[in-house]
Design a protein that fits this description.
Number of helices: 7
CATH superfamily: Aldolase class I
Number of strands: 8
Helix content: 25-40%
Strand order of the largest sheet: 1-2-3-4-5-6-7-8
Order of helices and strands: EHEHEEHEEHEHEHH
Structural class: alpha/beta
């Protein structure tokens, strides 16, 4: 199970401080997840995060959870140095053909484009674009940190594993060691964590517990 730390800070200096801490973890962190978008759903505004990535583009691979409307999909800012994966919300895709074309174009540039599925989404409405390889399952409501893992996410995860067995799932929200163990049994490949790591008195130890939970 890959554990991907989440950085969601209001300023460039705070975000860089988090990256500095992660850089010094004894258990190496290779990928970092950023929640970005338009306030109030995200505290990091789009123009800020490219400044954060520049100094660490050779240290980490970055992925973005973009909480933005379709008009802001495929922004030039989303191609900041070091960004390897970008997630957009499935329910914001209104022009599926255009999304597919852009997805394939970005893949040629080395950027994986995935979609976000929420635990509240009706299963009948979850239809993935045919070229999507990565799905971020959001078990909580976007925006507020510290929420608990919503039990409905289990149904969504099971549905995706059965209908789209080749898609790689990442689960975001309410991640704890017991949740990681259950997700690993379901075949989930990756989780992201913010609160469990950063609200711990010892972030490195919290990260290690998640990594060793599966």
């Amino acid at each position: 199970m890959e554990v991907i730390p989440v950085v969601n800070r209001e300023t460039v200096s705070d975000a860089k401080q988090c990256l500095k801490i992660l850089e010094n973890f004894s258990s190496r962190v290779s990928r970092v997840h950023f929640d970005v978008g338009v306030p109030p759903v995200s505290t990091i505004r789009i123009p800020l995060f490219p400044q954060v990535f520049e100094a660490y583009k050779d240290t980490f691979s970055f992925e973005l959870h973009c909480m933005v409307p379709e008009t802001l999909f495929f922004s030039r800012a989303h191609r900041a140095p070091g960004v390897a994966r970008v997630y957009y919300h499935l329910d914001e895709i209104h022009d599926a053909e255009r999304f597919e074309r852009q997805l394939l174009s970005w893949r040629k540039q080395g950027i994986d484009v995935g979609v976000v599925v929420r635990s509240s989404d009706l299963l009948k409405n979850i239809v993935l674009p045919k070229s999507v390889r990565s799905v971020l399952v959001l078990s909580v409501v976007p925006g507020r940190a510290g929420q608990k893992f919503h039990t409905r996410a289990w149904k969504v995860i099971s549905f995706l594993k059965e209908k789209y067995p080749r898609v790689i799932l990442t689960v975001d929200g309410g991640i704890t060691p017991p949740i990681v163990k259950k997700l690993a049994k379901l075949g989930v490949s990756r989780v992201t964590s913010a609160t469990y790591i950063w609200e711990s008195k010892k972030p490195e130890e919290a990260y290690r517990k998640l990594v060793e939970s599966d």
